[in-house]
Amino acid sequence: MALSMHNKEGNNKQMDTSKYVRYTPEQVEALERVYTECPKPSSLRRQQLIRECPILSNIEPKQIKVWFQNRRCREKQRKEASRLQTVNRKLTAMNKLLMEENDRLQKQVTQLVYENGYMRQQLQNPSATTTDNSCESVVVSGQQQQQQNPTPQHPQRDANNPAGLLAIAEETLAEFLSKATGTAVDWVQMIGMKPGPDSIGIVAVSRNCSGVAARACGLVSLEPTKVAEILKDRPSWFRDCRCLDVLSVIPTGNGGTIELMYMQTYAPTTLAAARDFWTVRYTTTLEDGSLVICERSLTIATGGPTGPPASSFVRAEMLPSGHLIRPCEGGGSIIHIVDHVDLDAWSVPEVLRPLYESSKILAQKMTMAALRHVRQIAQETSGEIQYGGGRQPAVLRTFSQRLCRGFNDAVNGFADDGWSLLGGDGVEDVTIVINSSPNKILGSQYNASMFPTFGGGVLCAKASMLLQNVPPALLVRFLREHRSEWADYGVDTYSAACLKASPYAVPCARPGGFPCSQVILPLAYTVEHEEFLEVVRLEGHAFSPEDVALARDMYLLQLCSGVDENAVGACAQLVFAPIDESFADDAPLLPSGFRVIPLDPKTDGPAATRTLDLASTLEVGAGGARPSSEADANNCNLRSVLTIAFQFTFENHLRDNVAAMARQYVRSVVGSVQRVAMAISPSWLSSHPGPKSLAGSPEALTLARWIYRSYRIHTGGDLFQVDSQAGDALLKQLWHHSDAIMCCSLKTNASPVFTFANQAGLDLLETTLVALQDIMLDKILDEAGRKILCSEFSKIMQQGFAYLPAGVCVSSMGRPVSYDQAIAWKVLNDDDSNHCLAFMFMNWSFV
């Protein structure tokens, strides 16, 4: 008994001493090495560690497990503390920024109150306007003149003289700072730009000033010198910048530099000319350590030479603009950005002037783009963004830049790049330009391997059109997610063939389209997800021997941007280029795509949520559709310009054939986009609760009632059980019916085409309501089905209905579909006249 008690006490003593172990520095070093390799080792790994490290032999495996748990906990606490410190620094800096913004607004309010009082006094004493020459009157009138035109006139100075250039630069600096931190421009904050530690910053646009201006300020975790280096590389973040040439650099006595520069920018659409700028840029450091990069155009008014004119370009003016970069306590920078330009809007057609008179578009394209680019690089540098695929962020950014640049080159078609106009077919809706001198563009986005060794070049078919009441973001999202609605697999195959040694023959239009499906593989995205890069795999399906050669998987590199409906003034764009399976970093790219730019400012109210699945417009009900008055209020006069450009390689002996194919294809795409635009137009959706059918067809509610009533008249039974025929009950039952129900036109002089299908019918046909009317009845029936329908057609017309035996039909994608039975019946309108033919396929499934 005593022996057992002694053993028990010994065990307790051992347990007590095992609760805490004091590790030697050598033991800690050994454990840290393992932790670096594996922060959470398994039980077997811990036991192996004890065997391999003699210095750990006196430690129990359980204690080693506890050490790793504590180590992971300390690491987690350290990261959390670091994160909280970073957030605290951001909040402190943002608070400082907001206080400065509040001071600026208070000054602006004081100035407006003062001017308001003066104007009230002038209105009360009209005679004083002609006799009052007091200092107060002169000062106020001068302030008003500066507000209306913040660019005063300057005497002519010799820009070839460094002293003259320095005077211009110092004036530019003063005027820029008055816009960035003062009240030289009446700034109005953009809607939806809420400040915060994770937001882009404070964004404002000009009101009642010459030209268009935008201003932004925000926080980044980069040092001022690095920020300045990024911002001065304008082509890397300003997608509309074609070239930026620094003609000369002059050092100044205060350690700064003055640069004479020439910049060309792309035109956003084929309907307007490109712009160029002749500017002086001044980089200097202020007394408080802030870096300033300011810039303005050299004109006769500002002094200095204006630069020689360039063909195909309209000279635009950059008013004092730039970047103020201030160091932030604890690291990082506070950036103030001002962009102020006069784009000579009067030189473009009146309908396009909003593109050049909108401060919101300028804010999205330049001001916010610069701030987003710096924030993107800052987060990539800190490791906050992880990309898959093993590619560096800089490589992915280069892909995005090359896609945008190639698309802009195609839209603009500059002669100095080798582009020339190809004669048309008499109709001016599609423009064809060719580049038979690839050596002029090999240094940009093209590659010598894309051109046949025996002669060839690049052909571009492009067109622009105006859209009414179509949200750009919604349209581009639909084009991205429903490629089969507008694209032709045969044309995609031809485009992909430019990456091969021997291209395919020129494709011809396929009436039913080639069956294919797309799989979108995300590649990269920006911080705010306003732009994302992805790889699209087009999977071909062959159901006939002649299609086997063409049915193969293809890959596209695709860039999509501007798909946020709440972004004010944002340009929506979908650009893609064929790539091969290897997808090297220097892969040749021949971009094509769409660009939609809003012409009118959006309303202040939030955009209504709309689905891209047009079939869901049948989900009508008390809360399913907005009143037309509300839709009109939110979308009245919403206009945008759509630009389409498709590029193809060609061999010289096939140039005319490729041009004819490209022209026909772009016209087909334009027609498809117009149908999609009409279907997703908010004003159309609000007034049409059913699907868009052929001209003269009834509304969806009426059509559902005719289908149900005609089935009961002809067969004597009910198509489905419904409690009430009032309202939308019939339509809902028809839409959700488990069997595929579809209607086709009933014309003796034309092939029947589908005009309506319920959800099951759309699933069977593998299509949407937009493309439904492009599918003909005889294309989905096999040979046996067509023969049976022809033999039963007279019975259907006389008796009103007929049962069809089990068989096989084909979806629009070419997939075979089996069904157990089908029934066809005439649909009669309210006058008992034949309206259409309805079919119901029972117990169908894909083979």
TrEMBL record:
Domain Homeobox intervals: 14-78
Presence of keyword Calcium: no
Compartments (UniProt record): Nucleus
SMART domains reported in the protein's UniProt record: HOX, START
Pfam families given in the database record: Homeodomain, MEKHLA, START
Residues annotated to bind DNA: 16-79
Major location (coarse): nucleus
Coiled-coil features, chain-numbered ranges: 88-115
Ranges for region Disordered: 124-160
Assigned keywords, A-Z: Coiled coil, Differentiation, DNA-binding, Homeobox, Nucleus, Transcription, Transcription regulation
InterPro entries named among the record's database cross-references: HD, HD-Zip_III, Homeodomain-like_sf, MEKHLA, START-like_dom_sf, START_lipid-bd_dom
SUPFAM superfamilies: Bet v1-like, Homeodomain-like
PROSITE patterns noted in UniProt: HOMEOBOX_2, START
Family: Belongs to the HD-ZIP homeobox family. Class III subfamily.
Official protein name in the record: Homeobox-leucine zipper protein ATHB-14-like
Organism the protein comes from: Hevea brasiliensis
